């Protein structure tokens, strides 16, 4: 079956891309989704304690005022069921489901140069073709289960948080081992501990965390969100990170130590990612950063009663926020429970999984269940699960073997008319994702409209554009402390054998947004467009159909 565009993935990105291409440009579009329903990351991530770290009044689409008026979030941070309900509402409102196919995993996408189309194959052997191929596969979707010796011998059950069973897991009375203390593990541990007989948290790298302070939203706040929609959208679209709060312009050195302490204390009490917005230079100046780092470490020591456990939790080896900063609900408090223990893998490494538990250097930890909160093969892993081949069989996997190479995180040379929403080299994971997604969807939609209007067959970046963009991405990262935390999934170091290259664009979403539109306004500067054969007039006529 042929479509004008095929979109892979039915999360925030896929839904909006379908709406934009179909309802604004009049294209024939099909969304193919591996999951059994829409939701993207929120379809898969159903682990205990899962909740978005972005606040609900910002973690949403901003393209429709009507949609904003209709939707009411119930809590400060939305949980997966509410996010899925929201996306379900969006799908219903814009009648999206009729063009979406679930349980349809795309396994291959090959560019057919003679026909100028993408040939797509699914795990069930279905075949589709499309002029434009858009990946909306998410940045953190390919689960990373470490290859621990002995795992296959484990007689208990094990789960990865990103592929959590929909029916849930009953921890009652069970001895649970959780590996991983990133954003996911920090959310999961307090909830698992509530019902587990015993929880052992295996920590390799100690992590900062700030209280989320989740709470039901008051009717006054819900009213405020509706009344101030334009202002909230304006802030989200003009800040560095797409959140609906501004980063302070003051530097750490502008205030006295007492004032600084009071600022951190207020941010700690308020909770959430705003903590990192307290000072302008937290991510660029080591000394400034260390004041925030020491503040959090002091809180850990004051919360956790057992001094040895507190020391292990506070023994953090990277600057605050140089790895993705988690926020939590009673994470450190959880270690005061009698049924929770911490194993510091730096001092007591895992030797192997046994039939009955995990053996570390100091001995055996008997377990019934192992929870892998061990993260993802981020940014490239999900794209690599698809055999993507461009012109003359150019394989994406091969092209990116030294690390991802893109122009603006949107396109790669030799892969004409393939667009990667929130691809590596774009702000993506350093932002409140829906805001970055909307910007990409709108740019791609405008780009495709431009191609069709001008009878342009193909668009792809010039090699030189990719080279200079790649250098710029690294240069931006080097200007921040993100570059100092080399052991981070931003660099791919969490996955064995993965090239170590800083992947997201850290120059700021506001700056990136401006740049993308300027490039488009200059006739897609840095891209190569093939005008040799005009697009089929029939397709072009479809866009110009009345009512569009
Ligand atoms: P992550 O940040 O990569 O953390 C994985 C954890 O597992 C780390 O503590 C890591 O230790 C540990 N680990 C990995 N392999 C290990 C091994 N072989 N042995 C022992 N420990 C191992 O993954 P994540 O927590 O799933 O979070 C990934 C991203 O998803 C986040 O950064 C965030 O962007 C997103 N996320 C968002 C939310 C939200 O919005 N609510 C929630 C969860 C996740 P090392 O640090 O030593 O590698």
Key attributes of the depicted protein:
548 residues, alpha/beta, binds NADP nicotinamide-adenine-dinucleotide phosphate, disordered C terminus, eight-stranded mixed β-sheet
Describe the protein.
- The chain has 548 residues and is of the alpha/beta class.
- The chain has two domains: 2-38 and 96-142 and 377-460 and 510-520, 3-Layer(bba) Sandwich (FAD/NAD(P)-binding domain); 151-372, no CATH class.
- It contains 17 helices and 20 strands.
- The chain has helices at 12-24, 41-44, 65-70, 80-93, 183-195, 219-227, 229-238, 257-270, 286-303, 307-314, 331-334, 381-384, 396-399, 433-453, 463-478, 509-521, 537-543, and strands spanning 2-8, 29-32, 100-101, 106-112, 117-122, 127-135, 157-160, 175-179, 198-203, 210-211, 327-328, 340-344, 350-354, 357-360, 363-366, 369-372, 387-389, 418-420, 458-461, 527-530.
- The two termini are 24 Å apart.
- NADP nicotinamide-adenine-dinucleotide phosphate is lined by residues 51-53, 140, 146, 179-185, 187, 204-205, 324, 345, 373-376, 429, 487, 489, 494.
Domain count, please report it: 2
DSSP strand tally: 20
Structural class: alpha/beta
Overall pLDDT confidence: 96
Biggest β-sheet: count, sense, barrel? 8 strands, mixed
Strand content: 15-25%
For the terminal residues, how far apart are their CA atoms? 24 Å
Secondary structure layout plus pairing:
Blueprint: E1 2-8, H1 12-24, E2 29-32, H2 41-44, H3 65-70, H4 80-93, E3 100-101, E4 106-112, E5 117-122, E6 127-135, E7 157-160, E8 175-179, H5 183-195, E9 198-203, E10 210-211, H6 219-227, H7 229-238, H8 257-270, H9 286-303, H10 307-314, E11 327-328, H11 331-334, E12 340-344, E13 350-354, E14 357-360, E15 363-366, E16 369-372, H12 381-384, E17 387-389, H13 396-399, E18 418-420, H14 433-453, E19 458-461, H15 463-478, H16 509-521, E20 527-530, H17 537-543
Helix pairs in contact: 1-14, 9-10, 14-16
The structure holds NADP nicotinamide-adenine-dinucleotide phosphate.
């Amino acid at each position: 079956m042929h479509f004008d565009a095929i979109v892979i993935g039915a999360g925030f990105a896929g839904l909006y891309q379908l709406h934009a291409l179909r309802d604004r440009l009049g294209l024939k579009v099909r969304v193919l989704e591996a999951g059994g329903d829409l939701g993207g990351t929120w379809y898969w991530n159903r682990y205990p304690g899962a909740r978005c770290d972005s606040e609900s009044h910002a973690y949403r689409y901003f393209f429709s005022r009507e949609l904003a008026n209709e939707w009411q979030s119930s809590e400060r941070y939305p949980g997966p069921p509410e996010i899925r309900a929201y996306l379900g509402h969006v799908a219903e409102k814009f009648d999206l489901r009729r063009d979406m196919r679930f349980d349809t995993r795309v396994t291959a996408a090959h560019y057919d140069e003679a026909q100028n189309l993408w040939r797509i194959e699914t795990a069930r052997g279905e075949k589709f073709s499309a002029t434009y191929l858009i990946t909306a596969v998410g940045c953190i979707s390919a689960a990373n289960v470490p290859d621990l010796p002995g795992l296959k011998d484990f007689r208990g059950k094990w789960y990865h948080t990103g592929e959590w069973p929909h029916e849930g897991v009953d921890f009652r009375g069970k001895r649970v081992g959780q590996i991983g203390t990133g954003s996911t593990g920090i959310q999961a541990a307090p909830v698992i501990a509530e019902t587990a007989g015993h929880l052992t948290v295996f920590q390799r790298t100690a992590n900062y965390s700030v209280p989320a302070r989740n709470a039901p939203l008051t009717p006054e706040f819900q009213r405020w969100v509706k009344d101030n929609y334009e202002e909230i959208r304006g802030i989200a679209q003009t800040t560095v990170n797409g959140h609906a709060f501004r980063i302070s312009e003051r530097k750490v050195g502008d205030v006295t130590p007492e004032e600084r302490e009071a600022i951190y204390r207020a941010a700690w009490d308020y909770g959430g990612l705003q903590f990192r917005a307290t000072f302008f230079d937290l991510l660029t100046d080591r000394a400034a950063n260390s004041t925030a780092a020491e503040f959090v470490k002091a809180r850990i020591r004051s919360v956790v009663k057992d001094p040895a456990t507190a020391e292990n939790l506070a023994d953090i080896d990277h600057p605050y926020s140089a790895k993705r900063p988690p926020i939590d609900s009673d994470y450190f408090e959880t270690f005061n429970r009698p049924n929770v223990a911490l194993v510091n893998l730096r001092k007591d490494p895992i030797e192997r999984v046994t039939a009955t538990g995990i053996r570390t250097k100091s001995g055996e930890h008997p377990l019934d269940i192992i929870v892998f909160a061990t993260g993802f093969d981020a940014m490239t892993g999900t794209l690599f699960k698809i055999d993507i081949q461009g012109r003359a069989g150019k394989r994406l996997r091969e092209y990116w073997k030294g690390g991802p190479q893109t122009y603006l995180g949107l396109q790669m040379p030799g892969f004409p008319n393939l667009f990667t929403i929130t691809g590596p080299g774009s702000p993506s994971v350093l932002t409140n994702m829906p805001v970055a997604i909307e910007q990409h969807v709108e740019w791609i939609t405008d780009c495709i409209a431009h191609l069709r209007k001008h009878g342009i067959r193909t668009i792809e970046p010039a090699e030189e554009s990719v080279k200079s963009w790649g250098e710029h991405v690294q240069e931006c990262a080097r200007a921040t402390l993100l570059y100092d935390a080399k052991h981070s999934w931003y660099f791919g170091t969490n996955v064995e054998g993965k090239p170590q290259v800083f992947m997201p664009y850290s120059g700021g979403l506001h700056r990136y947004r401006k740049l993308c539109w300027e490039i488009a306004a200059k006739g897609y500067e840095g891209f190569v467009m093939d005008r040799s054969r005009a697009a089929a007039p029939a397709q072009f006529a479809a866009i110009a159909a009345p009512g569009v």
